[in-house]
């Protein structure tokens, strides 16, 4: 809720002063760093303040030498099972027709990937995505096909629309005039990146997507290259926010490719945000996207379009939630 309040406040202020010029300059103006930071050993880096709980769940096994892939799945599962999280899994807000539809993906250091989208009634979409990766010749399963696959693989059917989420949806229906655009105050994704003791990278994303979205809408979160990309030799990147902008710019793939070409994790995220900012074609106050990145050498970075985006970082020395610098400022 802290995050939500901060974000709403940021948007309210955003007749948004724009930091024009090079993204590194914009980052400095917004209080960020151009260089980023580097950490030794295992690392967990998650979106939003609720990422701290995901990190806490995943950390013990990772710290003990567990695999990055297991860590990102464990972190995502924590968020999916939290009934108080309105934007992921159980307790997630439904689409405008009252259906909770889930998007998730997972990727490892070898470039293996699995994904599910428009999945209903399964508590842990991230684990179904992992099963798609490990047990099928495919990368992505959608809708009823994904659900049938999950049930056949032993996942239980679950009603994910909690009484609280149903009440919020009913209240929204009473008052809302539906317009198919970002209701930016009601969406988030748990995106999580990990590096393990052996230097292997992995990432995962899971979300119920944009609340009250059109039935059938799929966001960036299950799309490999959009909300998540991992290259074991280079780095990993993930996204949260207004998915349509991430999809149009294939942001996480872009961040990793920029890191391959020599950018730091930080400046790669800044450039990916800048691509969105330059091509907005929309009131910047209507858009929020945030990227996080981690290099194979343990450097981390993050950048957002608007103020209000947070990251949760866990290492052997650090367990923190920080604000992420942004392209637009509120000054
Ligand atoms: N990216 C998600 C979507 O567009 C929502 C979010 O992360 O805020 O569905």
Q: Describe it for me?
A:
This protein has one domain (37-323): 4-Layer Sandwich (Glutamine Phosphoribosylpyrophosphate, subunit 1, domain 1), CATH 3.60.20. The protein contains ten helices and 15 strands. The strands form three sheets. The protein has an eight-stranded mixed beta sheet. A five-stranded antiparallel beta sheet has the order 2-12-11-10-9. It has 331 residues and is of the alpha+beta class. It has helices at residues 2-13, 23-29, 51-63, 68-81, 125-135, 143-152, 163-175, 243-249, 251-260, 265-278; strands spanning 17-18, 37-38, 43-47, 102-108, 113-119, 140-142, 190-195, 201-207, 228-231, 235-241, 289-295, 299-304, 310-314, 319-323, 328-329. Helix 5 links the parallel strand 5 (113-119) and strand 6 (140-142).
Radius of gyration, whole Å? 18 Å
Into how many domains do the coordinates divide?
1
Classify the fold: give the CATH topology.
Answer: Glutamine Phosphoribosylpyrophosphate, subunit 1, domain 1
What is the number of helices?
10
| Strand residue content | 15-25%
Largest β-sheet summary: 8 strands, mixed
Give the structural class: alpha+beta
CATH architecture: 4-Layer Sandwich
């Amino acid at each position: 809720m802290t995050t939500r309040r901060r974000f709403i406040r940021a948007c309210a202020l955003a007749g948004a002063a724009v930091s024009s010029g090079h993204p590194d300059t914009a980052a400095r103006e917004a209080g960020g760093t151009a260089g980023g930071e580097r950490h030794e050993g295992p690392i967990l880096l998650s979106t939003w303040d609720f990422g701290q709980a995901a990190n806490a769940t995943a950390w013990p096994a990772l710290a003990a030498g567990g695999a990055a892939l297991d860590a990102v799945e464990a972190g995502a599962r924590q968020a999916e099972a939290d009934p108080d999280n309105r934007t992921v899994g159980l307790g997630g807000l439904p689409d405008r027709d009252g259906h909770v539809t889930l998007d998730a993906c997972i990727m490892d250091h070898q470039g293996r990937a699995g994904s599910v989208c428009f999945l209903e009634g399964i508590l842990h979409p991230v684990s179904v995505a992992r099963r798609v990766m490990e047990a099928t010749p495919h990368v992505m399963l959608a809708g009823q096909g994904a659900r049938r696959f999950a049930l056949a693989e032993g996942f239980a059917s679950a009603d994910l629309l909690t009484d609280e989420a149903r009440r919020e949806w009913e209240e929204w229906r009473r008052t809302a005039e539906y317009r198919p655009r970002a209701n930016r105050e009601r969406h988030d994704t748990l995106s999580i990146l990990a590096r393990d003791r052996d230097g292997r990278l992995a990432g995962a994303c899971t979300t119920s997507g944009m609340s009250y979205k059109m039935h059938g809408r799929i966001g960036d979160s299950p799309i490999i290259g959009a909300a998540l990309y991992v290259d074991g030799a280079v780095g990993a990147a993930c996204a949260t926010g207004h998915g349509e902008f991430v999809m149009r710019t294939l942001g996480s793939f872009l961040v990793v490719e920029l890191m391959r070409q020599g950018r730091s994790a930080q400046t790669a995220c800044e450039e990916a945000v800048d691509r969105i900012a330059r091509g907005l074609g929309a009131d910047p106050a209507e858009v929020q996207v945030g990227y996080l990145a981690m290099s194979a050498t343990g450097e981390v970075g993050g950048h957002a379009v608007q103020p209000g985006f947070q990251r949760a970082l866990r290492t052997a020395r650090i367990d923190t939630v920080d604000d992420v610098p942004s392209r637009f400022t509120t000054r």
